[in-house]
Amino acid sequence: MEFLVSCFLCLLLFMCVYVLVQVCSSITSTRSRASSSKLPPGPRRIPILGNLLDLGDKPHKSLAELAKTHGPIMSLKLGNLFSVVISSAAMAREILQTNDLIFSNRTIVDAIRARQHHELGMPWIPVSPLWRNLRKQPSLEDSPTIFKAGADVEVCGFTVPNDAQLLINIWAIHRDPSIGEMPNCFMPGRFLGSAIDVKGRDFELIPFGAGGRICPGLPLA
């Protein structure tokens, strides 16, 4: 019995130390970033979890609501991942066209890195001649669409730090009321006579994505 109590106390002590280290690391990282650059605005974060509780069960809608308060480019902390969320066509153009090369690499999760797929798998390797060749090969399923910054870059006056995870909220972009009336209603006729291009040139409507990671099957659509 005493052995079990000792094990439990050791485990509890370890968890307390781990939580304390994570909190201190998060505070230090946030202060250093804030002091060295102007980060995009964002909602208030809580220790360890960051903004995970702000996502809810429908993250795309929650992020769209947050964008109404914090703007079309905002920063979140999802656990230990610093993330930048884009919610307007103008900002999407800055990311996917103006700074295309910097934001073309994908976020690599630990499970992928452990098996070295980030060095061999087409969806994960950096943009290069090898990647351009492999992306022409057929795939059985869609590749993840979460990208990251390849370097510190300034976007519309805000600094997006290196390795920041990038989320393009296409749901919010396509439902921007400034682009069309009643964006939440199913109205196919709204596109009749419209000059908006869906092939990645006009960012008000990007069903196939845009930039270097645009859907390779676009010519077949």
Automatic annotation (TrEMBL):
Residues 1-26 form the signal peptide. InterPro entries: Cyt_P450 (IPR001128), Cyt_P450_CS (IPR017972), Cyt_P450_sf (IPR036396). Gene3D superfamilies: Cytochrome P450. It holds the Pfam family p450. Keywords: Heme, Iron, Metal-binding, Monooxygenase, Oxidoreductase, Signal. GO terms for molecular function: heme binding; iron ion binding; monooxygenase activity; oxidoreductase activity, acting on paired donors, with incorporation or reduction of molecular oxygen. Belongs to the cytochrome P450 family. This is Cytochrome P450.
